[in-house]
Amino acid sequence: MLIGCVKKGYFCKKISMGLPEIFNIADRHEFDMLALKIFEHQSLNNKAYRAFIDYLNIDLSRIDSIDKIPFLPIEFFKSHDIVSTGKEVAETFLSSGTTGTTQSRHLVTDLSLYEESFTKGFERFYGQIEDYTILALLPGYLERKGSSLIYMVDHMIRKSNSVHSGFYLNNLEELKAKLVEIDEKEKNVLLIGVSYALLDLISDTKMHLKNTIVMETGGMKGRRKELVREELHALLSEGFGTETIHSEYGMTELLSQAYSKGGGIFETPPWMKVFTRDPEDPFSKLPEGKTGGINIIDLANINSCSFIATQDLGRKIHENYFEILGRFDHSDIRGCNLMLV
Questions:
Q1: Could you tell me the domains of the chain?
Q2: 285 - beta bridge partners?
Q3: What's residue 6's pLDDT?
Q4: pTM higher than 0.85 for the full model?
């Protein structure tokens, strides 16, 4: 049953939602109830999302399960202000984009939501941030403004107790030496980097890291030939001397991340769920194991939009597990004309 006023045929003006309620979800039932509560809030307070819902002629009184919630095409973040609150914008996160393309803009009104989400998310899968030495190799992101990834990693570096933690840009030789040095001395080392930069780091070197987690954030950004995940991870594993390569899945339009500890299988935190849609019918949900467009519910996005239809292709494996298989070509994206609403 839908919580609150939408089921009765009218809207509540506000909902009461605190951090503990979102980030302490115990089971799927709690997730569904909170998702419906947030949908109720956003369908009233988010002008772009409400216009999208109205365009689809959806009867809000019939939204009594999360399976019926419409997902906003991610392209709306390029053309509309996606906000569900009247609070002042504290930070605008921008997608990397390419020359001549429009960037996505995530207008964040409460940075504590983002900080709580990425901190609890990371620590759920890897333990306390304070216990890690964090080395970041994110040149493409570090060289521009408005990167949500840089904001996250910078926060983690400052929270780390290690004097060795920090960002690296073009000083790859220094990073190589640092990696070898601290890998021999420290138990928990995280090297997080964009794919092409990690490949540059091992282009003429083969390491034998024992205590380092190598985590790629994806993206060749036109710097190198695009590789399938298996090929990329094989090259990185050989170069760094590690058995597995970890991955982070996030995007400008989300305030939560999923992580893979190997094999390209990602796991979401309890306040984030992934579903798949039929590529030919964006409003048709697919069963587990079927390849389709990735839809995401991110409850941390309470002040923007929690229900997003991405441009990624993948498959849901189980309740909290999924795999990314590629991206839609622009010509394959259905429903782009809805951005005119």
A1: 6-109+268-340 (3.40.50.12780), 111-260 (3.40.50.980)
A2: 277
A3: 40
A4: yes
